[in-house]
Amino acid sequence: CFALLVCFVCALVVASAAVSLRERQEENTALEKQRNVLIAVGLASEDEILTREELLERSETIHQVVVDLGTGEELPSIDPRTFEQEKFVEVSNSSEAVPNAAQVKRVPHRVLVYQLLDDRGEIRLLILPVEGAGLWSTLRGFVALDADLDTIRGITFYEHKETPGLGGEVDNPRWKTLWQGRK
Question: Residue 22 pLDDT more than 90?
Answer without folding.
Answer: no
